[in-house]
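Practice problem: Kinesin-like protein
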Amino acid sequence: PRPHPTFRVRPLTCTETRRGDQQVVHSLGDGAVHVSAARHDATFGFSAVFDAGASQEAVFEGSGMRQLVELAMDGFSCTVFAFGQTGSGKTYTLMGPLAQSEAQPASPALLGLMQRSFTCLLEQSRSRGSDLALSASYLEIYNEQVRDLLSPGPPCALPLRWSKTRGFYVENQLSVEFESLEAIVSLLLQGSQRRRTSAHALNRHSSRSHALLTVHIRSRAHHPPTLVLQASACPSKHGTLCFVDLAGSERVKETGSRGELSVEANSINRSLLALGHCISLLAKPRGKRTHIPYRDSKLTRLLARSLGGSGITLMVACISPSSRCLSETLSTLHYASRARRVTTRP
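Answer key — structure tokens:
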């Protein structure tokens, strides 16, 4: 199968409306997006397109997220990642409002793909009556360092290793077991509050790291003593559901960044460039592919299996409809168009 590029177009913000920005992106229905501006008139097709009026529930149901949860429970490696420029709505689509906390939970209608997936996972687990072991890990990649967002104390860098059986993996990351919605949402909110963010010209609460929350779903295989020799006929399954919130892609000069912020922005753009390069090569027919340079960044190493291996991937591309963001919007559209041509063998 191919990745499922899904597009979400956020509304114009009050700031954009006040300064007179024009809306240059329109949904045509049936998965089509039309860009209409000076010297640009193009239509792009995707699996699904959600315009400014689409609810969080509509995005969950229409993107195929429910199917990904079910596939992960069946033992597949499933990934959803959100990308787009800063302020385009990636974190909102995945998590909902930024202001939410355990003390101040978000309105149920505003919850994002992650919380809705957790609810679906736990409901499916109970309805199937299966004996599942659920755990979660939460990492960020900041300035090309992998850091654990769940371990107590200040985030410290963890080594990234490779093995023939596991592929690329993070050594010594903390994985926390959970059995309830409250427990996994608590882990999500605690980790998100530790994630590196900064304010700059494009966004007052900009994510300056890539964040990866992975839910591990293991089915416990129980066999009566008389069937021990036949246990291999009914093996346990291990599926994963990974949510990737990519840091925003934008030109450094647009953010007005200086010093440490400039270093952050350059690290983000280098890793996104490496991701785009891998996607471009993977989009070529298998007979014409050259070496895929997953080792060019920590991000591409951790996404190697999701992008071109045995995984099933949902891409959520978030864009601003503003004329002022046209260049980044076109870049995101072309980025997702290339990804649509990648095939995997889950």
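Discussion: DSSP finds eleven helices and 17 strands in the chain. Students who identified this feature from the tokens alone can consider the problem solved.
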